Amino acid sequence: MEVIELYFDKILYTVIAFVLLIILRTNTIKVIKRVATKWERFPTRTALIKKFINYLYGFLLFIALFIIWGVQLQSLNVFLSSIFAVIGVAFFAQWSILSNITSGVIMFFTFPYKIGDFIKIHEGDDSIYGHIEDIRSFQVIIKSLDGEIITFPNSMMLQRGVSILDEANIERIKKDLLQKKETSENDNIL
Q1: What pairs with residue 130 in β-bridges?
Q2: How far apart (Å, rounded) are the C-alpha atoms in residues 26 and 105?
Q3: Kind of pairing between the strands at 162-164 and 149-153
Q4: Alpha-carbon distance 169 to 184, whole Å?
């Protein structure tokens, strides 16, 4: 009983931190579900964003518990600095992974395209046409008009111009691409 009286404030703050975390997490998940429903996002993408949110809130709870239970800020600063240094070196070595994950989260909330859309990625003379098959953590899977599966990094999707094309244009685009291909082959023969 003495232990409870001695640590009552810390136990109370810990319970408050857990309750706040649960309320924040629940409300955030509701917002994510609303966005996913409104913009017709697939359940796998929604689950991925929920996982990222759970990691974020878990990290925040971890820090709150450190502060509540009296880990001195100096010790916490050294601990966090060490962790961020290791994470920073790892992410610097693999910056594209972090960039693609961040782009995947951004695309969830702002990307106007969805799975099944017929798109054109503007790459000059080498534009990519195809249907979006899947949008994953690191890349978008596109099935080209000739059936080729193309993986395109999320970060590149945000950096390139992308157009949604009408399904009625597929045959016209196929003809244009075939004509360009034949013209370039004829030029190579000459």
Answers
A1: 119, 144
A2: 18
A3: unpaired
A4: 22
- The per-residue pLDDT for range 69-103, each reduced to its tens digit, is 876 666 667 777 877 777 776 666 566 777 777 78
How far apart (Å, rounded) are the C-alpha atoms in residues 154 and 30? 25
Tokens describing residue 142: 């596109």
Q: Copy the structure tokens of residue 101.
A: 């994950």
* Tokens 């157009």 sit on residue: 163
To the question of pTM greater than 0.90 for the whole model, the response is: no
Which helix (H) or strand (E) covers residue 65, if one does? helix 43-68
Helix (H) or strand (E) holding 94: none
pLDDT tens, position by position, 21-47: 999 999 999 998 888 888 777 777 788
152 and 176 Cβ atoms separated by less than 8 Å: no
